[in-house]
Amino acid sequence: MTSTILSNSGLLSKFRGSMIGVLIGDCLGGPFEGDTRISKRILGNYFSNLLSGGSIQIFPYTDDTCMTLSTASSLIENKKVDAKDLAKKYVSEYISQPKRGYGYNVVTVFNALKESDFEDVFLPARMQFNGSGSYGNGAAMRIAPVALSGHNKTDESFKNSVEECSRVTHTHPSGINGAILQSYAIKAALKCDASKEFDPLDFISLLEKKMETIEMKGKESPYCESLKKIKDIYLLKQDDISAEEIAEYLGNDVSAHKSVPSAIYSFLRGMKPISEFEISNPFVRTIYFAISIGGDTDTIASMAGGIAGAYYGIESIPDELQKRCELIEEVSKLADQLYNVFGDVTS
User: HSE (CB half, 13 Å, CA atoms) of 92?
Assistant: First the structure.
């Protein structure tokens, strides 16, 4: 893995790539959500039709994008993570568009926040599941703007920002740590030069080192264990493992520890050709593979898209895919605004 000192234009491309990658993964993954086994023929035809311009359908975004955009808007306005403002924006967005696929548990948090007039923005999430909090992937799925805004921060400051954003809805260590891992993956991808040779083992080792420091404080280390599994795939030269095997090996459900590692692997897998899907674009391969894992396809593809977009930049994302996503212009504008506030490479 090669780090680089980015030009301002290069960083802007990566900000745009990450934010639009989140949207594309969400929109294109949505139709397959909940499917345990996805036909390669159907998925291949789906992408071929999109890329050839044969489809004019506009795919709707889900709660993944709703909360990501609310996070970005709050960061832009406050120049930092402001938990109370985040809570208010999440609730307001939900009230305005409640049928975007929000889960029951997060809706319960939103209702409690509204009823309490946001007095303690962390309490409703902390009270869930008999006080243990949620370990779902809802914090990880919206974390891209925080990762982008913290690209020049120290590890401690970066981690604190991610935790504060996460705790509005998720207080279980696995829910928070999933967001931390996802944010570190985006930050690492952002720092890479995509024109240079990439070593997946270096990338995973970097994330593993970060998570070892974090998970050593707890009784369990599901993220370090999953990162070791991914490392073993490459050490044993088994990086052609099937999507079905990844679903079994790393997971594909709504829990953070069984979806964030799969998103990270999808980013890595997209770097190499996929036998049943002949396309040269690695960003497209990333989204294809993430969806092919099945299960929580919109969120896994959205998280994978956020990492891949941060690595490859906006130029890697075909216009044909961007045009098929609802809200594409608004997301692009928010990415630019995020960059205007946080993108100074000299700070």
Answer: 13
Ligand-binding site membership of 117 (annotated): no
CA 70 to each of CA 11, 64, 142, 215, 291: distance values in angstroms, whole numbers, following the listed order: 22, 10, 9, 28, 24
> Please, which pLDDT band fits residue 159 given cuts at 50, 70 and 90?
very high
pLDDT over threshold 50, residue 121 = yes
**What span, in angstroms and rounded, lies between the C-alpha atoms of 310 and 324?**
20
8 A C-beta contact, residue 203 and residue 186: no
Q: Which helix (H) or strand (E) element contains residue 140?
A: helix 138-141
Q: Give the bridge partners for 293, in sequence order.
A: none
Q: What is the pLDDT of residue 115?
A: 97
- Does the pLDDT of residue 324 top 90, yes or no? yes
296 annotated to a ligand binding site: yes
306-320: average pLDDT: 97
Whole-number Å distance between alpha carbons of 165 and 149: 12
Q: Which helix (H) or strand (E) holds 245?
A: helix 243-249
Residue 63 · residue 102 · CB < 8 Å = yes
Per the annotation, does 120 bind a ligand? no
Grouping H, G, I as helix, E, B as strand and the rest as coil, residue 66 is helix
- 258 within 8 A of 250, measured Cβ to Cβ: yes
Residue 298 assigned as binding residue: yes
pLDDT at 46: 96
Identify residue 321 by its one-letter amino acid code.
Answer: L
- Where residue 194 falls (left for φ over 0; alpha for ψ -120 to 50; beta otherwise) is alpha
Is the pLDDT at 235 greater than 50, yes or no? yes
